[in-house]
């Protein structure tokens, strides 16, 4: 039975790679990378830098073209169907690549595989079909939520209180509950501008841990347009953006 590692590599800073992750990297013969296109080349460059820094043995890199999916979906039920279909097509491509490769494999996951990432769902699908027999091990990584808190030097929640982690889509539907700080990921529409209230504070970060890292913090109504202008500018220039933010009522 073959072995596959699913390795969390942190939010963007190569120094966030853990010793456990390094030990796993050094066992790998072939790394499977889901390509995001030339405009997101920086993501591949960070992975390449991590491998160059930590892996001395020979290895191969197999790039899998990420299948396209519909980004604008009118309702939640249809959105889940679109994403499930996308995961299935991704799984089929991984299965095909994994069947052709030899030795120990690995997939490097931005952040942590357990938080808003589809890699483990894709691996589960491949394992359940049984075309390729393999065992897999998950190596945790530093999440963007942890990196955001560290860079802003804050605690995500109040003493003994919960913190809510959600998406931009759900934030627009549900808002921010009183007494429940909310971490928002996967927000391509600046959903914080659609949340009512003058008592919200935001801690926003983009490209965390990377050379182009941007941090903005302040009362939401005072800084929201600054964030919108900043993210639009850098997204236009770079062609992509990774961002996350915390909202908390004062």
From TrEMBL:
<keyword id="KW-0489">Methyltransferase</keyword>
<keyword id="KW-0949">S-adenosyl-L-methionine</keyword>
<keyword id="KW-0169">Cobalamin biosynthesis</keyword>
<protein>
    <submittedName>
        <fullName>Precorrin-6A synthase (Deacetylating)</fullName>
        <ecNumber>2.1.1.152</ecNumber>
    </submittedName>
</protein>
<dbReference type="GO" id="GO:0032259">
    <property type="term" value="P:methylation"/>
</dbReference>
<dbReference type="GO" id="GO:0043819">
    <property type="term" value="F:precorrin-6A synthase (deacetylating) activity"/>
</dbReference>
<feature type="domain" description="Tetrapyrrole methylase">
    <location>
        <begin position="3"/>
        <end position="223"/>
    </location>
</feature>
<dbReference type="Pfam" id="PF00590">
    <property type="entry name" value="TP_methylase"/>
</dbReference>
<dbReference type="InterPro" id="IPR014776">
    <property type="entry name" value="4pyrrole_Mease_sub2"/>
</dbReference>
<dbReference type="InterPro" id="IPR012797">
    <property type="entry name" value="CobF"/>
</dbReference>
<dbReference type="InterPro" id="IPR000878">
    <property type="entry name" value="4pyrrol_Mease"/>
</dbReference>
<dbReference type="InterPro" id="IPR014777">
    <property type="entry name" value="4pyrrole_Mease_sub1"/>
</dbReference>
<dbReference type="GO" id="GO:0009236">
    <property type="term" value="P:cobalamin biosynthetic process"/>
</dbReference>
<dbReference type="InterPro" id="IPR035996">
    <property type="entry name" value="4pyrrol_Methylase_sf"/>
</dbReference>
<comment type="pathway">
    <text>Cofactor biosynthesis; adenosylcobalamin biosynthesis.</text>
</comment>
<keyword id="KW-0808">Transferase</keyword>
């Amino acid at each position: 039975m073959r072995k596959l590692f699913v390795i969390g590599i942190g939010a963007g800073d190569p120094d966030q790679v853990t010793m456990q992750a390094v030990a796993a990297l050094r066992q790998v013969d072939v790394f499977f990378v889901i390509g995001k296109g030339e405009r997101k080349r920086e993501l591949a460059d960070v992975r390449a830098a991590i491998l160059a820094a930590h892996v001395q043995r020979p290895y191969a890199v197999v790039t899998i073209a990420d299948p396209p999916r519909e980004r604008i979906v009118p309702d939640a039920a249809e959105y889940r169907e679109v994403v499930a279909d996308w995961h299935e097509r991704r799984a089929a491509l991984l299965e095909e690549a994994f069947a052709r490769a030899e030795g120990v494999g690995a997939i490097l996951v931005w952040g942590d595989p357990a938080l808003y990432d589809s890699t483990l769902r894709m691996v589960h699908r491949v394992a359940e079909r049984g075309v390729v027999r393999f065992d897999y091990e998950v190596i945790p990584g530093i999440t963007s939520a942890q990196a955001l808190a560290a860079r802003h030097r804050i605690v995500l929640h109040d003493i003994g209180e919960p913190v809510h982690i959600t998406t931009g889509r759900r934030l627009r539907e549900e808002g921010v509950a009183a007494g429940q700080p909310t971490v928002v990921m996967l927000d391509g529409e600046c959903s914080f501008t659609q949340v009512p209230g003058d008592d919200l504070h935001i801690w926003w970060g983009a490209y965390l841990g990377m050379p182009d890292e941007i941090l903005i913090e302040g009362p939401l109504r005072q800084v929201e347009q600054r964030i919108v202008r900043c993210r639009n500018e850098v997204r236009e220039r770079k062609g992509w953006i990774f961002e996350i933010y915390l909202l908390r009522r004062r």
